[in-house]
Amino acid sequence: MAHLYKFVPAASVTDEFKEMATQWPIWDSKVAPMQETENKFHFDYDGDYGSERVLITAGVATLTPDDGSPAVELTVGDSVHLHFGFGATWTIHNPVEMAYGYFDKDGKKIEQDEISCDVCGTDCYEESYLFNDEEDICPTCFKADQNGSEEYEGAVYCREGKPSKELPKSLTKKRITSSLGGSAKKKAKGDYVPGMDDDE
């Protein structure tokens, strides 16, 4: 593998991959909380997985790797496999929607329970807050409460459904807790998916 990512142009994306992606959560740049500017954000792929694979379903974006690898423009139908340890800056040219799934280092699909915000209903698997061990709050709704009643004080910050020791820089420690102990209410489990090999 020459790079920590693998670009698959739309013409080469298999029907099997497209069908599998219909079962995945959708990330939408219009509501994503991680944007640093109006159209650009940086992301490190360092979660509990071997790779994240995405299928662009709307919009246009440029992915610029941190390691100096060539930037790639992604449009509808394109796919990219982002391996653990990869870091890049996403530049959104037209609002992007992408289906995403996680795979272990052996190419087995990691089945994740979807996590939806109990306030607005948006997908928040990648980043959420667990309040009173039962209520999932997306970053947008949690942030909206910052200057209000502070209803969610004491919520646990989670990444991919698990408590995270990293705290978001923009929020105070008073309002959220972070712990490696305890358990999140949603766990991931492995499931083999044939024909998915990232060794190219």
CATH class of the largest domain, named: Mainly Beta
**Fraction of helical residues:** under 10%
Structural shape = globular
Terminal Cα span: 6 Å
CATH architecture of the largest domain: Sandwich
H/E element order? EHEEEEEEEEEHEEEE
Brief rundown of the structure:
The chain has 200 residues and is mostly beta strands. The protein has helices spanning 15-21, 139-144; strands at residues 5-8, 26-28, 40-45, 51-65, 72-74, 79-83, 86-103, 109-112, 127-131, 135-137, 155-159, 162-163, 176-177, 188-191.
Structure in words:
This is (S)-ureidoglycine aminohydrolase cupin domain-containing protein. InterPro entries: RmlC-like_jellyroll, UGlyAH_Cupin_dom. The protein has 200 residues and is mostly beta strands. The chain has two domains: 99 residues, Jelly Rolls, CATH 2.60.120.10; 64 residues, Cysteine Rich Protein (Ribbon), CATH 2.10.110. It is 6% helix and 40% strand. The chain is built from two helices and 14 strands; from the N terminus they run βαβββββββββαββββ. The strands form two sheets. Strands 1, 2, 3, 4, 5, 6, 7, 8 and 14 form a nine-stranded antiparallel β-sheet that branches. The longest helix is centred in the N-terminal third of the chain and has 7 residues. The chain is globular, with a radius of gyration of 17 Å.
